[in-house]
């Protein structure tokens, strides 16, 4: 067990970037933490960390231990906490990456309640619209919206992601209201840019199940959904948006649904996790919490 606890300490050092920070998080003195790391290196007969004046960096051997040892330590942690069966055993640091707009709008307001429920848990949250390498970046969990491409991840669907075409009444008064999908080719369409797939091909399906694909274009392309929201609210064109993103503007009448008799492909909001034999209790607790809270939100209820 000493070897496993030393590996757990090493992982905490890698995550936090310093021995002193890792020691504080584990209620150890820096001296004891340093001694245990030296013991681990001596036992494995390899150097695990490059020590500089500002930060510690894992050696190639340290990176290998971090990648393979994390599953071992977390699997043991999950097993022992499952056996104890107590909610107050949800401990440690939960590292989560969230899409920027969705994370700020829906997840951030829930975090105080979640942390009050699990007072022994720490959170490390990153907001990014880029697809993050969960394993390489050391994340326990990611929230992803849309079509998933990485089949090596464990996926849990949290909610539906219904999308609509929308514009302001002013824009539609000036340029006319599209009556069928083909009309979109003659309009200013605000396009979400992506390096992974084409976003200028909009697929719509009518009530009889007949699908039509239209190539659209416009003066604005962006990889940031909030910029497109500002643009569509400014009357600059027609945008494709998730209902969760713009439901308040739809309810207030600031935005109108375009081609309401057609639907866009419905995708999902997912929790994704690295493949593990046992999912750590902190991860399961967070996923269950999000499932409960999103199901209660009017947008999805």
The number of helices is 11
Q: Return the string of H and E elements.
A: HHHEEHEHHEHEEEHEEEEHEHEEEH
Shape: elongated
Mean pLDDT: 86
Radius of gyration: 24 Å
Strand tally is 15
Structural class by sheet pairing and helices: alpha/beta
Helix coverage percent: 40-55%
Query: How is the largest sheet built, in terms of strand order?
Result: 4-3-5-15-6
Largest sheet: 5 strands, mixed
CATH level-two architecture of the domain at 163-265: 3-Layer(aba) Sandwich
Report on this structure.
This protein is an alpha/beta fold and 301 residues long. Among the domains are: 1-85, Arc Repressor Mutant, subunit A (Orthogonal Bundle), CATH 1.10.10.10; 163-265, D-Maltodextrin-Binding Protein, domain 2 (3-Layer(aba) Sandwich). Helix content is 41%, strand content 24%. It contains 11 helices and 15 strands. It has helices at 2-16, 19-25, 30-44, 60-84, 100-107, 111-117, 134-137, 169-175, 225-233, 243-252, 281-296; strands spanning 49-51, 56-58, 92-98, 121-127, 141-146, 154-161, 163-167, 189-192, 201-205, 211-215, 221-222, 238-242, 256-258, 263-264, 267-273. It is elongated, with a radius of gyration of 24 Å.
């Amino acid at each position: 067990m000493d070897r496993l606890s030393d590996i757990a300490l090493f992982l905490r050092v890698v995550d936090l970037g310093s021995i002193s920070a890792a020691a504080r998080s584990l209620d150890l003195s820096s001296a004891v933490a340093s001694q245990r790391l030296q013991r681990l290196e001596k036992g494995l007969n390899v150097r695990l960390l490059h020590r500089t004046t500002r930060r510690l960096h894992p050696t190639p051997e340290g990176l290998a231990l971090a990648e393979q040892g994390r599953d071992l330590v977390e699997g043991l942690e999950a097993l022992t906490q499952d056996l104890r069966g107590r909610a107050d055993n949800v401990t440690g640091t939960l590292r989560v990456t969230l899409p920027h707009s969705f994370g700020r709008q829906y997840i951030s307001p829930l975090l105080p309640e979640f942390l009050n429920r699990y007072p022994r848990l720490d959170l490390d949250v990153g907001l990014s619209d880029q697809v993050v390498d969960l394993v390489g970046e050391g994340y326990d969990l990611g929230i992803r919206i849309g079509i998933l491409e990485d089949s090596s991840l464990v996926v849990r669907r949290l909610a539906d992601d219904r999308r609509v075409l929308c514009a302001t009444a002013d824009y539609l008064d000036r340029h006319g209201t599209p009556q069928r999908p083909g009309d979109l080719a003659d309009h200013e369409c605000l396009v979400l840019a992506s390096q992974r797939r084409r976003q200028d091909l909009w697929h719509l399906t009518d009530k009889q199940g007949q699908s039509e694909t239209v190539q659209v274009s416009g003066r604005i392309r962006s990889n940031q959904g909030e910029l497109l929201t500002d643009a569509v609210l400014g009357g600059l064109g027609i945008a494709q948006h998730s209902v969760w993103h713009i439901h308040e503007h739809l309810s207030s009448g600031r935005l109108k649904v375009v081609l309401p008799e057609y639907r866009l492909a419905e995708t999902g909001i997912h929790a994704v996790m690295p493949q593990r034999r046992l999912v750590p209790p902190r991860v399961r607790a967070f996923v269950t919490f999000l499932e409960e809270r999103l199901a209660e939100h009017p947008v999805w209820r």
